[in-house]
């Protein structure tokens, strides 16, 4: 038969196809996530053109899938298509489904375009939470409580979603520019979230409100210009789909990267380390130069700390606060590019 169409493909860690489930031509998978009891869910969108004006209408479903990505259940969510929503994120627990959407009709009055819709497990909408002044980057659950990563011109913060009051209550602030986040993935282990930036992947811990470098592209000798998606499988493996500029040719790649073995790590650590801090984001030419240097040099390795992620044009104090904190902790770079 024909191979034309959309598929959900499961592979092993060597990239070999284990199972493949075909989707109808008018279906798209928005995102996969896991619940606290480790069940796997996805948001599925069905596109329909069912009127004389050829206007597309969408339907959204929360689906549970098994280990081979076969459907276990499929429940329609009561989302109003007339408001032109875009589904960005979701969470599932035993009693409810929470969905983060961009609602462009709602944004027309000057307020943030985000809203969180809550549904029962039958797909009926029960509550709506609309932030007054902040945009929501993602939602996540911890110990049965729903949280949101939010930002405005003045601040970036983690907030607790108060369903009864239809609001988000700030619980902690972050020195972080959410505009520079490329992708967000669900957490694993000690981390509640993983965030990717141009320089690597960072883990966010709600318990101490910390952002910890998890993978650094340059330290890993990887040339990655733009991540399309990523998923931290465990503490040693990360899956990436990304655009590569290798050999002056842009192409989309799918890879699983593993941490180096102890012998390789020892050889790297035997080289002298040069720490360089960039206040403004280093461009791709600078990154490529130092990446090639790290690959070829037998005496030194360069590590880049990109502080631009902690600031933006509206709030330079985010960067200053984070940089000062690093200096007080004794993390003093060898070279600073301002």
Helix count, DSSP H or I runs of 4 or more residues: 3
Order of the strands making up the biggest sheet: 3-4-5-6
- Could you tell me the radius of gyration in angstroms? 22 Å
Overall outline: globular
The major sheet is characterized as:
4 strands, antiparallel
* Secondary structural class: mainly beta
Q: For the residues shown, what is the average pLDDT?
A: 84
Q: Into which percent range does the helicity of residues fall?
A: under 10%
**Uncertain regions spanning at least 5 consecutive residues:** none
Taken as a percent bin, the fraction of beta residues is: over 45%
Strands, count: 24
SSE string:
EEEEEEEEEEEEEEEEEEEEEHEHEHE
Measured between the Cα atoms of the first and last residue, the distance is 59 Å
Secondary structure layout:
Elements: E1 6-11, E2 17-23, E3 27-34, E4 40-49, E5 56-65, E6 71-77, E7 85-92, E8 96-103, E9 114-120, E10 125-129, E11 135-142, E12 145-151, E13 156-162, E14 167-174, E15 183-186, E16 193-197, E17 200-205, E18 210-216, E19 226-234, E20 237-244, E21 251-258, H1 262-269, E22 272-278, H2 284-296, E23 300-306, H3 317-328, E24 335-337
Parallel strand pairs: 22-23, 22-24
Antiparallel strand pairs: 1-2, 3-4, 4-5, 5-6, 7-8, 8-9, 9-10, 11-12, 12-13, 13-14, 15-16, 16-17, 17-18, 19-20, 20-21
Would you kindly provide a written description of the structure presented here, covering whatever features stand out?
The protein is mainly β. It contains three helices and 24 strands. It has helices at residues 262-269, 284-296, 317-328; strands at 6-11, 17-23, 27-34, 40-49, 56-65, 71-77, 85-92, 96-103, 114-120, 125-129, 135-142, 145-151, 156-162, 167-174, 183-186, 193-197, 200-205, 210-216, 226-234, 237-244, 251-258, 272-278, 300-306, 335-337. The strands form seven sheets. The protein has a four-stranded antiparallel sheet, with no helix packed on it. A four-stranded antiparallel sheet has the order 7-8-9-10, with no helix packed on it. A hairpin with a 4-residue loop joins strand 13 and strand 14. It is globular and about 65 Å long.
